[in-house]
Amino acid sequence: MISLLLAVPSLASNPAEPLPELGDSAAGLMAPAQEQALGQAWLRSFRASVPLESDPLVFEYMENLLFKLSSYSDIEDKNLDLVIVSNPTINAFAVPGGVIGVNTGLLLYAESEAQLASVLSHELAHLSQRHFARSVEASQRTNFTTLAGLLAGIVLAAASEGDAASAAIMASQAAALDSQLRYSRLHEKEADRLGMKTLVDAGYPAESAALMFKQMLNASRLYGNRMPEFLLTHPVTESRIADASNRARQLPSTTNVPSLDYLLIKARITALGKVPGKESTEESAKEHIKRFRLALEKLSTPEPSSPTNSNVPAELARSAAHYGLALSYLENRQWRKARKTLAPLLKQAPNKLAYILLDIDIDIEAGDSKRAEKRLHELNTTMPNNYAISMALAQTMLSNTDYKDAQKVLQSLTKTRPAQADVWYLMSETHGLAGDILQLHQARAEFFLLRGNFSQARQHLTTALHFSKNNYQIAARIKERIRDVNSLQQLTENL
Q1: pTM of the prediction?
Q2: Dihedral angle sign, alpha carbons of residues 167, 171, 174, 179
Q3: Which residues have a Cβ under 8 Å from the Cβ of 64 and sit 6 or more positions away?
Q4: pLDDT of residue 19
C-alpha cells in the first residue's frame, strides 16, 4: 500500500507530457488507462489489507445485483471489480478503474434490495462521471498527496480503524476541506441524481434512495463521534433526504417487489458473522440462534406498538428468519435441528439454491459427504461455473480425497474468474494435495499477484520454473508470466 500511496503524486510529475484527448474536462490530467492502472494497483493492495467476505453465495448475489444495475447506468466499461469487506459498519466506495466496494454492514442496515441498490447506483454514478479524475483536476492547486490520503482512508475505514481513517482523510484534505472530502458537494448531488435514474431504470422505486438516506441518518446518530468513513464522505442531512424525496416524486412510480434472495443473503451474513466478545464460531452461533428465534417469535405474535418494516411481507421475513436459524444451528454443529428447521423451506421452494446448498452442507456435517458430492455434481452439471456451486463441489471433493476431480472444477473456475483470489488459494491447496508441485507454485503465484505481493509471486514462479523439468512449452509460459509480474510491478511503481 505504501508504494501505491507514494506513487500517486507522480501522476502530475511531468505536466508537459501530453495525455490522450478524451473529450472531457479531465482529459488533460488523467486518461482512463491511468485510472484503470491506479484502480487495479489499489485493489491489489486492498485485498491484502482488509478482511474480505469470502462466502461465494454472498459474493455471487452482490455481483449479479451490481451487473444488473451497471447495465442501466452511464458507465462505459461495465467490467467491474467487486470487493466485499467483512465489516459490520456502513461503507461503500468507488475507486477509479471500475472498482466497487461494500461492507457487509451495508447489507445489514439496508431494509430491502432496493435500498441497497440505491447505494450501488450512487457509486456507479461516481464512476460513470469520472468524479475521481475531476477531483484530481480540482485539487491540483493544493497537493496531489490528497489522492493518497483519500485512498488510504478507504483502506483504514474498511479495516475498522475508524479514528485513523478520519484522521487520514482530514489530514490529507486540510487545504481543500471547505469544498470536498472524497468528492465535492456538486459531485455528490450529481451522483444522487444519476444514481436515482439508474435505480428507476433498473425497476426499483425511486423513493428507496430517500429511505436509505433515512437509515443512514439514524445510523449516524448512533455512531456519534465515531462516524464511519462512508457517512463522513457522504454526509446525510434532512435537506438531502428532502431533495431525494422531491426528486422521486417527479419520476415514474414503481411498485416495490420485495426480494427474498436479499433477505436470505442478509440472514446469511448475520448467521455467519462473528459476535463481538465471542471467541469461537459455536459461541457466536448460539447468539445468532437466540436472535433468529426471537425474530420468529415477534413475527408470529407482533406487538401493535412495535415498529415493523411494512415493506417486507411477514411470509418472506419468516422464511429468512427460518433460513438464518437453520444456518445458525449448523454453525453450532446441531445438524438435526438445522435439517428440521430447513425442511419446510425446501418443501415450499425446492429449487431455491440457498436452501439446496444449506441442505447439502447439512449432509456433510451429518457425515454423508459422498451424497453431498453427488448432489453438488448434479447441480454443477445443471449450472456449470456457478461460483457458489463450484466452490462447494471442489471443497467437498477435497474432503473426499477426490483431488484430480477438484483440480478440474477449479481449473474451469480460474478461466471464468481469473481475478478471484479465493479460487487461486483453493487451487494451490488442491494441487498440493494432488502432488502437483509445479501447478501448486503457479497457482500460489497468481494468488500473491492478486494481493500485490510481487516478490512472492516471482519467487513461486521461479520455483515452478525449476519444476518444469525442461518442458519447453511450460517453461516458456512461466518465463512469460515472470516478465508480466516484472512489468506490472514497474507500472505500479511508476503510476
Answers
A1: 0.84
A2: negative
A3: none
A4: 28
